[in-house]
Every structure is written in C-alpha cells, then in structure tokens.
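Much of our argument rests on the idea that a fold can be written as discrete symbols. In the encoding step, the backbone of a single protein was reduced to a row of integers, each denoting a local shape. We regard such an encoding as a compact summary of how the chain folds. The record that follows shows the chain in one-letter code together with its fold in token form:
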Amino acid sequence: MPRKPTLTARKAKEQLAAMAREADPSSKIPTLSTLSKKLDIHPSTVFRILRDLAAEGIVWQSPNGRFHPASGRAQQVKGLPVCFIGREIWQWSRLYQEMLSGISEVCSANGSSLVLLSVPTLIRQTSPTQKPKFASPKTQKSELEKLIPLIPRNCGGILFDHLWHDTALALHHLMPATPKVQLLHGTTKWMPVAAPNFEAATDLCRDFINKNHIDHTILVSPFANDPAVDFHIGVLTRALAPYHPVTLEFAEVSGNLSRLVKKKPKCHICFICPEDNTAKVLFEEIQASEKLKATVSLLGTQGTGVLSAPAPRLRFDFRRLGRSAAAEVLLGQTSKPPSPSFVSNATS
C-alpha cells in the first residue's frame, strides 16, 4: 500500500503547484537540487511531486526530462516530431488512413514531422475480408524492442497502433520521457487511449431495430483477436441482449444469406456488422436479390467511409479522433470521444 504524503510533502506540492501556475509560460521549473534546498525535502520527493503535478496537467515534462509550466507546453514542443508505431503502411485500413490524416493535420500545424515505425508481423492480411494473422504478445515485445532505439530522442509524443498488447507496451519506460497514447482501443494500463464512443452506437442500433420492426438480429463477427472489433462486438452483445442477438462468423453468413433467411420464415432479419469491409460485401449480396431486399436489413457500425449509400450505417469522425490524439500527446489537450451519427440513403 502506498504511503500517505507527509505534511511537509503536501505543503511542498501546494507550493510547487502555485509556482507553476504563476510562472511565465516560457520559463522552466527550477532543477530538482534547487527545489530540494528551497523546500528542504529530498530530490526524489521533489521528482515524485512534479510527476504527480504532470499527471494533473499543472506542469509538463519535456522529452529532455526538464519540467515546465503546463502553459508553456505549446512553445516547448513546437517542431518536435511525433512518432507512430504500428502496422506497415500497406496494411493501413480505411480507418487508420482517416486517423493518420487527422494526426498529420496537427503535426503540420505544429511544424512537426510524423515518424512512422512499422512492424511487418503486427498484422498480416491478404485482403480486407480475409482473416488476418496477428503477432503474438511475445513476438510483439521482441519486435518493439528492436524499434525502441529508432525512436527520436527529442520526440514530442508517441502514438501506438491499437493492436499492441500490454505485454509489449510495458516497455514504454525504455522509450523517451514523452506523452504516449494508444489509438482506437486499449486497456489504459500503461497510457491513455484515444477511442471513439462505441457505447453511443448501441442507442442508434436499438433505434434502427425498433423503427424497422426487426424480428431477428444477427451480429456478424468478421474475425477474432482484433481488440477493437472484439470490444465493439462485446458492447453490442450486451446492449442488444433484450433482442436476443445471435453471433455468426462472416464466413458462415457470406454466400449463405438465402439459407439463413429460410430458417426464419416471415421474419425481418437484421445483420449488424462491426467491420465495414465485410459489411459492404454482405450489403452487396443483399442488394443483388429482390427477395432478400424485401426481408433482410443490414447495419454497418464500425463507422468508416468504406460503407456508403444506400447502405444504412453509422459514421464516426476518425479524422477528428486522430487530431485529438495528436493534440493530446503534443499539447496535453484532451477531448470527448467522438460519437457516431446515423447515415442512410445519402452520401456521408
């Protein structure tokens, strides 16, 4: 159990917080040895207090380890590079293309370069609708160890692909002392996560089911072991429990729609797809049959731009999510997770 701060430490924290709030934005917080003498406490205690104040957003620790008033952070990170550590460019999904576009906007405005460090084995997928192969946590850790020396030492912030497991992210302490954020999904054990509001999507799904008088709901699982997709399916399963949804693999559904419909005669069936590439394939299969179009609905919920009119779908602003993630690591600015909107029979 952590020890409670002593009265001396609590007073020192109050003094340091007041000093940081009143300091000129361009100034630096005095060194640990200077503060230790001034406050009459050990340098390690000063360091712990400053780290606590950094977590509270009162001071900011630059990549070189020095502490600054939080108000001066924008000046200190001007022009510093931002590093994205994840999949290879050719494996970027539409979702990642949109997020990295938003990240690039913030980097450009800050005069920062975007450094891409990729791992070929993080994900291997021959086509968007084929089952991908993901690197094991052990392999991820080994690959990340190789990349750490390549991270710029004066990095302004580091962004991680959502596929990184906590086993690998535990190496964060070996990286530059700079803010780090995981994109799209994560446990938050080692760093904050910039993720969309998947829970908000469930209200729109319920509205769709009710308004369209759906009798039978099927959740389509595209593939397993993608943390964000698995989480999304879990959220939908719990939220839609009153409708008794059935979960099927994409391979069980694609090419078998007519057979599945025959099992539920006189029912209006809705397929809910939390991955837009597979949703697009199923929607095209439904549209190709007049009989299916009359009895089957499909709702895509991942929220990328892959699925388009006239397919009913949810839409997340992943570019905005990317901008938020970059602003968080560079400037310490946090924002609410983006919620989806419902789009149907119109271009997004």
Q: What stands out?
A: The chain has 14 helices and 15 strands. The longest strand covers residues 216-221. The two ends are 52 Å apart (CA to CA).
